[in-house]
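Reading a protein record of the kind used here takes little practice once its layout is understood. The fold follows as a row of integers, each naming the local backbone shape at the matching residue. With these conventions in mind, the following record can be read line by line:

_____
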Amino acid sequence: MTVIDSHIQSLQQKMQLLVKKHQQLEKENKKLKDELITLKEQQYGRKQEIEVLEMQNAILKASQQQLDDKEKKELEKKLHLFIKEIDRCIALLSE
């Protein structure tokens, strides 16, 4: 085998290693992207749960008449936003 042939073979081996590494990195990247999507969905779900719990807490306080003026205004604002969101959902469903 000549020197050129050995260099070519060495380069081919290195290229094969690079291709394998590239494929591994692509698989890992896809796995991480899927995991990121899952975590974002979980985060969104938790955020929604927190909002619902905060609203329930505010409603409970309101029912017990423990809200000060600032809390009442905040509760009214949140209720208004929820009503807007419900109206938007109804409009989307009726299309």
In short: The chain has one domain: 3-94. Helices lie at 3-63, 69-94. The longest helix spans residues 3-63. Residues 61 and 67 are 6 Å apart (CA to CA).
